[in-house]
Specification:
The chain has nine helices and eight strands. With 240 residues, the chain is an alpha/beta fold. It has one domain: Ribokinase (UDP-N-acetylmuramoyl-L-alanine:D-glutamate ligase, 3-Layer(aba) Sandwich), CATH 3.40.1190. The radius of gyration is 18 Å and the shape is globular. The model has no long low-confidence stretch (mean pLDDT 92).
């Protein structure tokens, strides 16, 4: 597979992440410092792409350095007003701050977060005391209230909440979509979250409804969990 790119070559080494899987196939990450993606310079080519972009997905991890954070923010600011800007928060280790999360939400119109990350964000940004990993399971109404408070505070179009085996939700200011997680034989979960996001965004760009996009994203993500590796070839029925 050949991927075109517009990022310039920098002197820092290619980013590396050591990934290990626990006995349930859940990945653990050791993320190395001082790598190329910590030093992404802003170029005119990048801004030209930004001016035409229909969608961009960005996270908090790539913003741990000031250089890359400023580049990402400038790219988002240069995008068209009606473009999809998806903040897939992706909290890793200690590489995030309340300031970076808030600034990212101010630039996003779609926020994707999992249940454990929601506990962290609710505490950091809303002052909501939560028990890590317990919020959605023990207090679903509080979970809904927190999600809608984030939508209102940061003027988001929607918030996607993934909850592992429990299922996933898409919230707007007034509506809610829930899809249960299919029961599949899990090979590993690497790439499941990114495949969900990519499918959801692609479906919206094709003019599908939130519900249609949600259902397709869940189906693709579940299939990825049954395969080894992050980018398996999808069967024809999922690509249709």
């Amino acid at each position: 597979m050949h991927l075109d790119h517009i990022l310039p070559v920098v002197e820092q080494p290619t980013g590396t992440v050591k990934v290990t899987l626990d006995d349930k196939g859940v990945p653990q990450y050791e993320i190395c410092l001082g790598v190329a993606w910590d030093n992404i310079p802003l170029t005119n080519n990048m801004l030209e792409v930004a001016h035409q972009a229909q969608a961009a997905c960005f996270g908090s991890l790539a913003q741990r350095s000031q250089t890359s954070r400023e580049t990402i923010q400038a790219f988002l600011d240069a995008m068209p007003e009606d473009a999809l800007k998806v903040f897939d928060i992706n909290l890793r280790q200690s590489w995030y701050t309340a300031e970076v999360i808030a600034e990212s939400l101010q630039r996003a119109n779609i926020f994707k977060i999992n249940d454990e990350e929601l506990d962290v964000v609710a505490t950091m940004l809303l002052g909501e005391p939560t028990v890590p990993g317990k919020l959605i399971a023990e207090d679903p109404e509080k979970t809904r209230r927190i999600c809608r408070e984030l939508i209102a505070r940061y003027e988001l179009d929607m918030l996607i909440l993934t909850c592992g085996a429990i299922g996933s939700y898409v919230f707007t200011a007034s509506k809610e979509s829930y899809v249960a997680t299919p029961k599949v034989q899990v090979a590993d979960t690497v790439g499941a979250g990114d495949s969900f996001t990519a499918t959801f965004v692609a479906q919206l760009l094709l003019g599908k409804t939130i519900r249609e996009a949600h259902e397709k994203a869940v189906a693709v993500s579940a299939y990825v969990c049954t395969q080894r590796g992050a980018m398996p070839l999808l069967p024809a029925e999922l690509k249709a």
